[in-house]
Structures are given as C-alpha cells and as structure tokens.
Amino acid sequence: MANAKILEGKQEQVSEVSGKLKDSSTTVVVDYRGLNVSQVTELRKQLRQAGVEFEVLKNTLVRRATAEAELSELDQYLTGPTAIAFSKEDAIAPAKVLSDFAKKNDKLNIKGGVVEGKVVGFDQIKALADLPSREGLLSMLLSVLQAPMRNIALAVKAVSEKQEGGAQEA
C-alpha cells in the first residue's frame, strides 16, 4: 500500500499543476525527446528570460491536473516524454520561444496547449507564435494612432506654404 505521505505529496503536485493550468494565459505542451542536456539548458534559459516556466512532468500527474482544471481535452497531447511551458503574463512568449527553438532544433515538437482557457492544437500555437511581440503590437498601434495627426500636420503645412507663395507673388 502506498505511503500516505507520498500520496499527499503527489496530490499537492497535482493541485499545483492544476493551478498553473488555470492561472496561465498560455500553456504549451512539447515533446523534447532527442534533445541533449545542453539544448534543454539553452531552451530553459530562453524561456526563463521570457518569463515562462518550463517543467518536465509525468503524463499521469498532468492528466489528473487537467481533470481537476476541467481541461481534459489536453490529455490527447500527453503521450511520450512531455514538457510543459506555462506563462501567466505574456500569451505569445511561450509559443514564440518554443517555435523559434523548434526551427533550429527539429527534435523539439510542439504538440498543442491551452490559450486563454481553451485547448488548441499545433496550428493555433504556430499562429500565435507568428504574431508580433507585445512591443511590436504597441509600436504598430502607436504608428496607426500617429498617422492622422501626421496627415493633418502635412496638410496644414501645405496650405501655409501655398498661402506664403501666393502672398509673395502679389
């Protein structure tokens, strides 16, 4: 019979993973089979710099956590060696970092994940990774907001130059 202390520890782990699944804006499930230690270390470093938590977890533990978090649809991606990236703040960061890393290391396979509480497949994670970063989106927004003011300023300048040219001729 299993030790009560061990069972309690496992239940705590399940609750912790369940909480991370509920709290994260984006969760990405990957198969890291074939990556060597230095590659995994580099991946962890890149994810940490982006504010993403990366864990290698047992599939049975994650299945229990998905049931607790009401995300059982994610279970279809929990086969073979599985690592999970959790991000609370930036919804794009885990998808972008993992996708960029997978381009350079064909051993890393993105399986699927959870975006804003909805289970998604590889295609949706890839589409999320192709979006510009938060800073890029903000700069795009800023240029869109500045365009009307720039156009007004150019029009006012053109009118004033035309009037100055007409005043010099007279």
Report the C-alpha radius of gyration, rounded. Answer: 25 Å
Q: Give the end-to-end Cα distance, rounded to a whole number of Å.
A: 105 Å
Q: Count of DSSP helices?
A: 6
Number of strands: 5
Q: Strand order, biggest sheet?
A: 2-3-1-4-5
Order of helices and strands: HEHEHEHEEHH
Which oligomerization state do the chains in this entry correspond to? Answer: single chain
State which percent range the strand residues make up: 15-25%
Task: Describe the main β-sheet briefly.
Answer: 5 strands, antiparallel
Give me the secondary-structure category: alpha+beta
The backbone outline, from C-alpha atoms, is elongated
Unreliable spans are none
Helix content: 55-70%
Q: What is the overall pLDDT average?
A: 85
Provide an overview of this structure.
The protein is α+β, with helices and mostly antiparallel strands and 170 residues long. The chain contains six helices and five strands; from the N terminus they run αβαβαβαββαα. The chain has a five-stranded antiparallel β-sheet with strand order 2-3-1-4-5. The protein starts with a helix and ends with a helix. The mean pLDDT is 85.
